[in-house]
Amino acid sequence: MQAVVFENGSVSMVERPDPRPRSGEALLEVRMAGICNTDLELLKGYMGFSGIPGHEFAAVVAEAPDHPELVGKRVTAEINLGCGHCPTCLTAGPRHCPNRTTLGIAGKDGAFARYVTMPVSLLHEIPDNIPDSEAVFIEPLAAALEPGQQLHLTADMSVLALGDGKLGILSACALRHQCPDIVLAGRHARKLAIAAAQGVATRRHDSHDGLAAALLEEFGRFDVVIEATGRPEGLAHALDLTRPEGTIVLKTTTFAPTPVNMARVVVDEITLVGSRCGNFKLATAFLRDRLVDVSPLIEAAYPFTEFPQAMAAAARPGALKVVVEF
């Protein structure tokens, strides 16, 4: 099969043997996959990654030795594979298993390939009314919805989604159903307009410092700030915008270190919440019921054979979602 490999900061297209499903697994034929910021960071050296990346995808079950009824079903899959028997797996689930592998990120070849194997237990069938181009958003939408599962968010809370990248837009559009006054703040009018069209209040400024000052003047500090800037200095800006005893939800992962004055966290007694993956069932329901429209986030689609060009397009400043089709 043809596959993409990241190694030492370079992207290459290679031929690899087709993977074979083991007991309890399915062989998935990938139809479409999305490039996300994590993939861009992996290419820079995040997690010391080398191998086949890709974790946002829609596929068809090609083989499932133990579950033949699944063959032909259109699916996506959760990305964390735990051992299934340690105390963490038995209580919190595989997401934080100390022995886990993560699809396309750590120890498990990903979906930037014609075929990928995944445990049947992690598969989620894609409803007929969700096209492949939207199904690739199930994983990032699940992540965007996760703060609503981690925190007791109420309708009267002041909530800021900081950063108008794909994850910031998804967070604001999804969480407005819990927090109708949520504000999305960023520097790009084109991106902010996507959220505004879905009922989200937006604020724009040309500089990060100017944006923070304008937000403080208009709103004061927020109860909850979702830091989704994708930038190392994002946490420092979030601290400036969070009230004492407020909460910052950290969504950014960057290869570069994060400079921040942690004394602010102590003095203002601010709670920091790491937030990574989310509930696929919930995200699928949001797309099925049209609670979030992800279609405006798709910037370009490339044939899989043009993956290097797709990666370059995704790396452009201000780029939205770039997908590859098989």
From TrEMBL:
Source organism of this protein record: Solidesulfovibrio fructosivorans JJ]
Please name the SUPFAM superfamilies in this protein's record: GroES-like, NAD(P)-binding Rossmann-fold domains
Keywords on this record?
Metal-binding, Oxidoreductase, Zinc
Concerning its family, UniProt says: Belongs to the zinc-containing alcohol dehydrogenase family.
Going by the entry's taxonomy, the superkingdom of the source organism is recorded as Bacteria
- What is the recorded name of this protein? Alcohol dehydrogenase GroES domain protein
User: Which residue intervals define the domain Alcohol dehydrogenase-like C-terminal in the entry?
Assistant: 173-280
User: What cofactor does this chain's UniProt record say it requires?
Assistant: Zn(2+)
Show where the Alcohol dehydrogenase-like N-terminal domain sits: 23-128
